[in-house]
Design a protein that fits this description.
The complex is a heterodimer of chains A (about 1000) and B (about 260). Chain A is of the alpha/beta class and about 1000 residues long. Chain A contains 31 helices and 39 strands. A 7-stranded mixed sheet of chain A has the order 14-13-25-24-23-15-16, with helices on one face. In chain A, β10 and β11 form a beta hairpin. The radius of gyration of chain A is 28 Å and the shape is globular. The longest helix of chain B has 30 residues, at about 210-240. Chain B is built from 9 helices and no strands. In chain B, α1 packs parallel to α3, α3 runs antiparallel to α4 (about 105-135) and α4 packs antiparallel against α8 (about 210-240). Classes of the chains: A alpha/beta (about 1000), B mainly alpha (about 260).
Amino acid sequence: MNQVALMIDLERCFGCKSCEAACKQEHRLKPGTFRNKVVWLGNQDSMGIDFFTLTCQHCERPACLRSCPVNPKAITKDDETGIVKVHEELCTGCGECVLSCPYSAMGFDEEGHHSVKCDLCSERRADKIEPACSSVCPGYAITFGERSELLKIAENTDRVVKDIDSFLLKPQTIYLEKLRGNSSFLPIMDNNFINTGKGPKKSNSGNGPLRSKKLNADFPFGFEKNEKIASRIEPGGCNICFNCCTTKFHFKGDQLVQITGNDEDPVLEGKLCPKAQFALQLHHNEKRLRTPLKRIGERGENKFEEISWEQALDEIAEKLIQMKEKWGPEALAIFIGTRTGILTQKGYTRLFSQLWGTHNIEGTDPFCASGKTISYQITQGINGSGNSYTPTDLGSAEMYLYVGDNQAETRPVYFGKINDWRIKNKAKMIVVDPRQTVTASKADRWLPIRPGTDMALALSIAHEILSKNLHDTKFCNDWVLGWENWKEFIFEKGYSPQWASKITDLAQSEIELLASEIANSDGCVIFASRGINQHMNSLQTNRTWMFVSAITGNWGRKGGAYFNMTAGPPISPNAPTERRKKISRPKIRKSPVGWLKAMKHGVPYPIKAMISSSNPLSQWPDQNNVRDAFQNLDLFVHIELFQNETSSFADYVLPAATGIEKGEIGRSNDDRRIVWIDKLIEPPGAAKPDGWIWIELGKRLGFGDVLREEFKDPRIFWDEVCIQNDFLRGVTQKRLHSVPYRWVRYPVSNEDSPEQETLYLEGTTAVGQPEGKRFPTKSGKLEFWTEELEKKFNCLDLSALPEFYSDPELLIDLPFLEIKDNDESLDVISPFYDVPTGTSKAEIVSIEEKSLSRELRAKGFDTELITGRPPAPHFHSWTHYFWEAQEMCPDLFCQIHPEHARELEIEDGEIIEVESAHGKINVRAYLYSGIRKDAIFIPIGWGERQPYNPWYSVNFLTSRDQRDPISGQTNLKSLLCKINKI
Amino acid sequence: MKNKKSFSIHDKLLAYLIFFAFFILLMYFSLLHLLPPLWHTPGSPVLYIFGVVGSLFLSVSMVFLFLKRTHASKNPVFWFNCHVVTAIIGSVLVTIHSSGHIRYAPALLLVALLGLTLLGIFARFYISKRNTKIFASKVPIFQTLNPDDKEKIEGIIQKKEELLFFIEPDSEEGTFSLCLKHWIKYPVFSIRFYNLVRKENSYIRKNFKHSFLIRFWRSIHISLSIAFFLGLFAHIIVVTFFAEYVSGGSEIYWWHMSK
């Protein structure tokens, strides 16, 4: 017998649940029915988080088979492969096998009343395809093959096979032990975030949770196999998150029946996160908006009537014209999130705003990443890292340092590659984060830094490196402008590890060690993300970490980088100059929450209308004020996929198409890959692509000569409008469609230009620059400090040399930034943006002078609140409309340290109230020892109008005023709060 | 597109059937006092027929017990569905046949029938749901290795192998389980083997706390059904062959074998 089996590597698994999603999709399993499941494990009394993929063990002595009373057996063991299989057509659903399996690996279909279990995808194997779970696993944690061969692989890589045979059943699934420590094997939150049922389902305080509903699965889940046998397969990509996974869409006729990874992709190799697979639940979803709606009740009441597109667009256009005549074109604000697609965000709406005449157009950047965007621009000349996820580039690093970047949960497929390279190359991984995130769970060391002090850590690391001459002097001299000014500055300020230790709450020795490790590694990649972006010191923190990367020579090389997520493709089309409306008033603020006073009080000038295509009434900070301001709009148009909190406030709700319903590129991508997604299906009902909506609205406003009818076809819009620059000119439809994986890595200046794996290498010239200019700055070098830069910062009363400050709400006294001009003022115009934009002067003040922190602490706000992304199955609001994401992670939770919880007499799973100076909400307590004792973490994305498990958004607790005046970035990562037991 | 995965009777349909059965019984007992005496007397020609037909339906239901344990059925799910439907119809007919006479010995059969029906409904609608929750609920077992238990299980396996030599020598212990033919052909060995199976299961299942009903509902259901059918058989024999005894000297108005 050639026993086949799965080998599951506990070191590589990071709990993303992609295998679970793949299994459910492959076998069309409905809610509650499982063939495999990823369980999160942890022990409240000791730090650490582990993951365990449970699946059938295909035992040599299968207890399930022996317990089956049916004769002939409904469960059999194959003589050739050793696979234990349940024959569902013979199973009468007595459940004996479910009870008898000591591993609890036997599933049950409560509707079909029969057992279900893993058979290692017999139908796929018959077609010579590996099982669904192993094919998608982003962590390379699941391998399928002959058991004897798998054991050889384990032996050759010095891995220990875990002994799990407690009952002499001779289980055949191979589990590889972790490289360090033992797994706890105690499931977190009873069983993996599943609603514990503890505490009230509906609280009396009005802060949630609200009613929850039974999960309801649409096609193809619960359908017969023959309903989903594909007759054709089309390549494309996922448009949900920034990992931009390449996919294959399987069709039976015109019906989308399955989504798998694109195994022809040389970078991602067919690996997928669960979200890409949930896209099936996006396109087959009864809850999708299908018809334009017009409000008939009060704002927020959610009462609408269905109207035609003609009526909706005619009325909106008429109201816009009236509004323009009375208040001017700048009274229209446009908020465009990346959900709408990059073509809409950077193409259609940009042209529309130029033709209409308003600078008040913005995306989600000021909430996510504007600090790093401007940091890259002023330091490197252009946004984004020049490195790639290839074995010879990022895969060749000796060290990976994650600072405020939980890549394992935010870009799981990329993390899977990094983690795989870490293990294969024995590279070091260190994570700096107030939480022991999933990323940190794989690291050699986790440094639990105080929120908001990453800048202090970077400054002290630089101090240590420069004071011990560990820096790359040649690189600094040749390719960095102003590095010596900065060196003098940090020495003068005394930003030593000793100084930083008190601020960051990290040991001095730890900081010194980290500095030497960064400097001495042959290739160190510093990953950073929202953890450092979402603070008031966002821009300066990003710059200091960039500087650390640069002085150690980890810039413009393979295996060395400062890597702060996605850059966004350089698409910036312009309407012909003569057609562009002269705009007389500047953009009020970079951040849309800086527009609230204009919406509510009409200052500095009124905003009377808004067109929004994301979910600001869940997403924007300080929800109480946001909702108050939205009440004052004369016209609010919402373009969306699902009814949500924002649409309930809208005058008109326009149903949008997405992904393969319209044709577009994937979201902004970490490593410059433009992933093209063809239009493959029709949108649900009367829903329309965003581009179609903007063109039709534009026609009614007289913009039809620029927003042309043919641009409704995204392929024409892409080739003729979006790629007309040196970076993208070669990313044509022809080239994108010439490869089976549908992506091209920019810059490629023409169709024949080769793609570049790593940009800014020594001896190269940056795109569009004169020969010899290695970096796309004016000087051709990285710019730490220049007189021109200093002048720009001086406009805001600040200096280009990053001086340490933190956020205004902290548990210790630290310098913070005092904003001098509020959002009613347009006295200061920022020198950091392409369009004139209002901002504020600011001053770094010490805590002795003024302190919001002290005031709040005196009122009992004794805990630091961190917000951020939930586990991998979720991405903002829309995944909350997918039943499977809800099954995996249903409730809004609050990670709280067990000691802290014990002091407050809070139990795991209990519903608690969290209150900040800005609002309060209820959440479910999740006792977790991998978080700083005085901090809590609450994820984003939940909203009170979601269909399954509605909770109020965490943004009822955040502040709109705590913004970086240079980048407009809002602090969402360190706010004071208190916890009230209900 | 409609969900076509329905080789089992859908819960909703079954719920309607149960509701309809209860409705019929409710109507019957509510209107009983208005009906002619024929409908009050279990042995009357009408209710006699109800009893006979009801028993036949219940027998079809009982057949499932044997069919699933022998090679006789190629489609046990079909027979399971028959089991469910005929049990409900049979129960209604037999209950009407009793016409509410609960002070006599055969009322025990009604109690058993009620227990069987309720347990069946409970299993279908509640235990099915509980079974889905068991998946991945025993993960801590992956770190529990008890060498003492392993040693004891090893001993049990050895004894099972020895017994298997007599019961079915060609079978492998790891995939063997007793079925009806073994119980009939080798009752003693089967009992001994069964006891070893139970002992092994006690080690395997000792760490898992399932509720009493989840663990034993099938045993109770089977025991109760055997008791019911033995009682039914006795009832048929007595009313057919010992009608005088049953009537206590009164009129015998049902079909019987007279001396």
